[in-house]
Please model this.
Amino acid sequence: MSPAPILSAFRQALDEAWAGGAGALLPVGFFAGAAVLVPLGVGTDPETLRAIGPGILWVSLALSSLVTLERIFQADAEDGSLDLWLQTSAPAASIAAAKTFAHWLTAGLPLALLSPLLLLMFQAQIDGALLENMLFYAIGGLAFYFWGGVGAALAATVRRGGLLISLIVLPLYVPTAIFGALAMGGGPSSVAAPLFLAASTLFALAVAPFAMGAALRLAAD
Amino acid sequence: MSVGSLLSAADIGMIRGERLLFREVSLSLAPGEAIVLRGPNGAGKTTLLRILAGLTQAETGTIDRNAPHHWVAHRDGLKPHETPREHLTLWARAWGQSQTDIEPLLDEMGLSRPSDVPAKHLSAGQRRRTALARLRLENRPVWLLDEPLTALDADGKTLLLDMIAAHRAEGGGMIAAIHGDAEFEIDMQVDI
Model:
C-alpha cells in the first residue's frame, strides 16, 4: 500500500484550515474567551484562581475542540471528496486519521501553545511547570480531537450535527480530563497520572481511526 | 461473469427505506463497451453506480471488479478554496503520480484561463470540466460517470464525447447514468 493518498489527505486538510482564514483562529478565540470569562465569574482571589486554573483550561480545551470538529468530515461528505477518498488504495481509517491529525495540528496544538499565557492570567507561578502543563494539554488535546473525530465522522451526514457530536464525544473525553487534571494537581497521583494521560491518548490514537473509518463508510453508504 | 469483463454485476437489488429501488439488475462491461443506465428521477441510477463503485452496499447480488475505476458524480469533489490546478495536482499525487505534468491537461480541458480560480468562483461547467479532467490523470479501464454531460457547454460536450471515444478505443469501458440522448454508441442499456 502506498502512503500517497494518506499524505495527500493530510495536505488537503492543512490547506483547508489555512484557506478558511479565521477557521484556525476560531478555536483559539473560543479557548481564550472561555478561560478569560471564568475569573469574572468566580472572583479575583489569587489562591482560588491558581487552584482552578489548570482545570478550567482542560474544560475550555474540551469545549474548544467541539467548536470546529463538526466540519471536518461534513464538508467532505457534501462536496463529494469523501467519495473520492474512500475509493483510494488507502484504508478509510488511515485517511480519517491523517485528516484528524491535521485538524489537531491547526486547531488543537495552538491551544496548548497558548496555555502558559492563560495559566499566568490564573496567577500561576513562572516555572517549568508551565511548559510541562503545555505538553499535557498537547497530549490530552490529541485524544480529544481523535475521539471528537469519531463523533464528527458519525455525524458527517447529519444536519446540525454539532449537538450529536457533543453527546457522543463528551463521555469519551472523561479519562483524558481526569488524568490530565490529576497530572497537574500536585500530590502523589501527579507522578503516575502523566503516564495514564499518555496511555489514554495512545488508546485514542489506536482505536479512534478504525471507528472513524467505519463511520465514514457508513456515511457514504 | 463473462470472461474478460472489466466489471460485472449479477442480481443486484437495493432497498432504500421501505422502498424497493430495483432488483435483479445484472450487467457486464467488456473492454471498449459503454453501458447506459436509464430511468426516471429517483429510480436509483446514482445508487446503482455507487454500488458498482463499492461506495454503497447492495442488499442482494454480487459484483466482480476486475479493473480499477474512475468516479465522476454530481458532487464533483472540489473544495471551495481549491483551484483546478490544485485539485488535479492533489489527486495526481494521491494516486501516486507525482511526476505528472498537469499543464497540458488543463489546456486540453479548456481550464487554462480559470486554472488558478478557487472552485467557489468557478461556473458549474468549469467545475465539471475539472472533475472530468481527473479521468485523464491516471489510466483506469473503468469509468463510472453520473450525469457527466450536466452543466457542460457545446464545446465541453464535444470534449467529453471525444474523451469517451478515445477511452473506448484504448479498450476502456464506461458505465454512465445519462438523461436524454447519449451521443455515442451504446452497447447495453439498463432500465431501472
